[in-house]
């Protein structure tokens, strides 16, 4: 199962990625009441209980890898739920080709948009996918009206490969050549990988 990242923290300059735990669900649930986010993520509002079930399934499913995006300036220091800015996911949806990962990024906090948080979180997740999960091809499916997201992925070397007028979404793709792999690892060479349990313990917030 995709528990590979359950003790992994990826600490970048602007963002820190931590595993999605039950403690994050109430805040996440609050975000997903927003009609704008429902539209951008093409998702239905869930009850808090359903959101908890979803979190458990995300943790157990072998074909999903998810991190909550925290603001590096705030955490550790402030409580995680007060430091949450979004989430980033990798879906391994192609049974024939396990080297394809579909990536999704959501910066839910309006005050954190347009500040490079999404870009760094996406780079961290891509580098993790390449190093730990053997991903060599990335795909991103984005609603046509979400121009900021489309332009961000293009800056990360993704190319537009398809447009679906039915789903009103654009599919972008990146094949990780040796050159792209080097670029990706250079972009993320500042990232520290840490143990989630140890960091929480150090912050003195570990539940006994």
UniProtKB/TrEMBL annotation:
It is an enzyme of class 2 (transferase). GO terms for molecular function: tubulin N-terminal-methionine acetyltransferase activity. Keywords: Acyltransferase, Transferase. It comes from the Eukaryota. Pfam families: Acetyltransf_3. Its EC number is 2.3.1.308. PROSITE patterns: GNAT. Gene3D superfamilies: 3.40.630.30. It catalyses: N-terminal L-methionyl-[tubulin] + acetyl-CoA = N-terminal N(alpha)-acetyl-L-methionyl-[tubulin] + CoA + H(+). The keyword Transferase applies. Residues 15-186 form the N-acetyltransferase domain. N-acetyltransferase that mediates the acetylation of the N-terminal residues of alpha- and beta-tubulin. Belongs to the acetyltransferase family. GNAT subfamily. This is Alpha/beta-tubulin-N-acetyltransferase 9. It comes from Oxylabes madagascariensis.
